[in-house]
Amino acid sequence: MTDEALAWLESGDDAALLAIFHRHIRYVGELLDELRTGPLSVRDLMEAAATQYDLPWTTLDQARRRVTWLSCMGAVEYRTATLLALTARGEALLAGLVLDGPSEVGLQPLQPVEINEPPPAISDLLTELTPVALESRNQILGYVPRGSGEADVVQALQALVNASSPSIGKAELLAFAEKHFGVSESSFGAILTTLTKSGLIEQTSLNVYEPTPGARAWLETGEPLDLALMFHSRYVFMLEIIPMLREYDRAPDLARAAVDHFGQTRADVAGIRTRLQILRAAGLITERANWRYQATPLGEEVAARFPLQAPRDVTAAGVDHKKVPAGSDDRPGESQVKTAVEIGRDLVRAGTDSDNPIRLEQAAARAFQLLGFEARHIGGGGKTDVLATVDNVDLKPVRIIVDAKSARSGSVNEGAVSFDTLREHQAKHGADYVVLVGPSFDSGRVRARAGKNNVTLITTAELAEVLVRHANSPLSPHHYLGLISGKEDDRRQLDLCWSGAERRINLLAQIVIVLAEEARDTDEITHGALTSDQIYLIVREGGTGSRPHPKDIEAALGLLQHPLVDSVRAVQADRARPVAYHLVDAPALVQAKLATLARALDLLDDGPAS
Length: 610
Description:
Elements: H1 3-11, H2 14-24, H3 29-34, E1 40-41, H4 42-53, H5 61-72, E2 76-78, E3 83-86, H6 88-95, H7 120-127, H8 131-135, H9 153-163, E4 168-169, H10 170-181, H11 185-197, E5 201-205, E6 208-211, H12 213-221, H13 224-234, H14 241-244, H15 251-262, H16 269-281, E7 285-289, E8 292-295, H17 297-305, H18 334-350, H19 357-370, E9 374-377, E10 386-391, E11 397-404, H20 419-429, E12 433-438, H21 445-452, E13 455-459, H22 460-472, H23 481-484, H24 488-520, E14 530-531, H25 532-539, H26 550-561, E15 568-571, E16 580-583, H27 587-599
Parallel strand pairs: 11-12, 12-13
Antiparallel strand pairs: 1-3, 2-3, 4-6, 5-6, 7-8, 9-10, 10-11, 14-16, 15-16
Helix pairs in contact: 1-2, 4-5, 7-12, 11-25, 12-13, 13-16, 15-16, 18-19, 18-22, 24-26
């Protein structure tokens, strides 16, 4: 028995057992924290595990197991047949947990850090890393098989490269992968692509492969650090992760940093996780808490010694890493983002400009117009500030009145709001919803009275964030009824719609990149084309993250094949093999074609559909 288990038995305190679970098992204390916002179903908890904690479970089993343990501890209980809630005991237990871990774990070396010089074959790769070469490295780190999970990334790569030594035929390597990792023949092409693009093996004759000089040197040393250095020579944002951990310590944040600072075309959380696993195996980083990493002294020394790509400056456009796209003002979509940022800033500033209340009213009207509502500013004594209308999913009109309250203090108190007047305005206009927009709201009676009177409270900062996210990933206007209904389920559904739209947009870009790299580095196995199954294996998140939906892949390929774009051709060598897809245009030309479609709509009325 471990010391912590003995301590729990001696204390007899469930809090000690919960602390053990929380330290060693992901999404235990975090599940309790999710319930602080209100009752949730087990499915809600499973979705939160996927969207917020990178645990893409396909069944409810893991969420139910955690709920069972927490129920036995009295930390959660069912309030209805399906909804779980946090108990007072759960609140007390949660207060004793550190959810994000310490801000930094002390890792001071006892003596100066020494780094063994890499073998000459690997050192030569690093000396070739000029600034231009660093920016030209591959972006997509593809599929690495893990079998049933018994092998980590480094062990799996080592086994595959070792099997290729001194040389191996394609059929023999496929048989090895099938035996040791359970991969199918259709998956093998993606594995071979990863091995060749990583510089681990190379084709020496028809259907024959052998390790590269660098890979042979790595096999001799067996050092994960040498593998990390090889990958750094081949992939963007490898050793660059180490200094970035001072600002971003989780895979999703690092993925966004790669886009913002290192030219990644999309946030590739899967590839970041694979990089983190290699860096951790090499001793360059450590996981200080669940999903949070920091550099080790060895990592700091390695990052200082070898050439890194210099991060570039970006222009922030609002909340949560959203940014204004670089380029000219004529770039499709850029003006929409800039408009969203402008209105959002005006909302926030107008929220505290109580000397000019009409400013917030007008900004609120512009905000709802940008979201696709038919909104007009009315204002004046005894009148509602903004009247907005939108068709719901059944194409039936829904009417909303919006009241805007500015406050110099930054918080709207109860005395500033007449709920009786709001009810009168609602009756006058036959409104379905009432919304109150302000800088923030007193957490006391104003919130309670708003709930009692079915008035939805939206802060100016929250509305500004919605505008920026809408500009980057637009949704149909009826989805934003989830913002103004005041119901948590509706808000959650809005977030799910947004997440789905953003996932599909990112997937489209990812597919273009994957097909472009395959077309550029063609071989006799794929002939520059990939099947949808191979695309799935390459873009899925290393077997540990949320995976693309096959239907979304098919939809993206359908768009790229449509006559209006015509950038992908389907090829089929024979009926026994699945259809493969070949990118016939450069990514820049694909972008230009899609931009042309957007410009074709420039002359249309910007107002909502009638």
